[in-house]
Amino acid sequence: MDNMNLNKHISGQFNAELEGVRNQVMSMGGLVEQQLNDAIDTVHDQNLEIARRVVERDVKVNSLEVSIDEECTRMIAKRQPAASDLRLIIAIIKTIADLERIGDEAKQIAHMVIDNANKTQPPLVSIENMGRNVVKMLHNSLDAFARMDVEAAVKIHESDKRVNREYESVVRELMTFMMEDPRSIPNVLKVLWAARAMERVGDRCKNICEYIIYFVKGKDVRHIGSDNLQSILDE
Amino acid sequence: MDNMNLNKHISGQFNAELEGVRNQVMSMGGLVEQQLNDAIDTVHDQNLEIARRVVERDVKVNSLEVSIDEECTRMIAKRQPAASDLRLIIAIIKTIADLERIGDEAKQIAHMVIDNANKTQPPLVSIENMGRNVVKMLHNSLDAFARMDVEAAVKIHESDKRVNREYESVVRELMTFMMEDPRSIPNVLKVLWAARAMERVGDRCKNICEYIIYFVKGKDVRHIGSDNLQSILDE
């Protein structure tokens, strides 16, 4: 992990505390990535035991969010950070909120697998592929967060367009399936919700990339549109 | 507006600044409520001009989020708040994030109306009713936020169960419609997304209620389950 970029911004005093919290975020990120990965696996192999474990383990994700949040508030009150230290803490508070929601999406995907078990399934290959790409996007986002890598963040942000295109194509495929076999509608709708959950994971990864840029560049780029994002790198 | 409860918690010094930011949150809330209300209106009257205006005006909601967020970070750096002052600022940062997303949901509902214009519609009465209840839930949440009223917050939080029941019933109704007329599936799906957007507004109102409780009681109640929420009042 290359911390060069980061350490520049951290005043000596509470370096260790900040490092500690950053490590907690990475642990939380690792757990959420595993949850999402497991959820996508169950779409493929229909392993209900794993699906149920994803649902149960979401509590752990939630409690990590609460404890990291508390630690951040405590640090603000105690250390009175300013400038980039404060931006890091704010970026962390927002990142864990998105990670927690990604955990929720993973749980929802697992629920779909459990609900649709032993029922006639629509074709699941496209949604599985989409899921793999979304897991990769999350992995890359967490990696960029660990290194506070703005260039990577801009690139990952851009890659959400591909996820959106895949999502549109999954929706069209499932729509055709429903029209050909209307009795399948209730089951296919659940698969559609799962696809939607994956598409939202992409959005949340985009958010995390925006917090990385906020921390490093000191700029809130949330609503400037991804076409203008590239220019941030030149500043 | 009864500020008794709130002023107790604010140390004199930057009372005015905090009041200013709170007022900005209320303006943003008012705008978001209008956006949601207008969006639901267009589901009923299919007024495309209003629907387009909802889509355009979302930019204003976004820029309010960014400027309030900046102001909060500036206050933390300058005023070094602790205890309830800090909790209020954290609660505000989180509340405006949810308000911005409610704005996005309103935009999505308006998009559905625009996309489905002049096409065969499924019955829209139930989704309209659900929409009205969700607008009311948002209105009450903003009201509770203005007064930092914990009792109201717990009650509103509870009322999300009703929204969820309505949502389930809307989904069942639309599913039946699709099964009877499979050619309607593409249009009905858009209506389903709009229903989902409304259901999510309910979730976000719940979040805002949780921040109110966090501010007043100093407790993070995000994942404790609504059945345990009532006991918070007795503490």
From TrEMBL, chains A, B:
Record-linked Gene3D superfamilies: Phosphate transport system protein phou homolog 2, domain 2
Biological process according to GO: intracellular phosphate ion homeostasis; negative regulation of phosphate metabolic process; phosphate ion transport
Where the protein is mainly located, per its record?
cytoplasm
Q: Isomerase as a keyword?
A: no
Keyword Cytoplasm attributed: yes
Which positions, given as ranges, span the membrane?
Answer: none
Keyword list (alphabetical) reads: Cytoplasm, Phosphate transport, Transport
The terms describing its cellular component in GO are: cytoplasm
Family, per entry: Belongs to the PhoU family.
- Name-wise, this protein is Phosphate-specific transport system accessory protein PhoU
At the highest ranks, the source species' classification is: Bacteria, Pseudomonadati, Pseudomonadota, Gammaproteobacteria, Alteromonadales
Quote the gene name from the UniProt entry: phoU
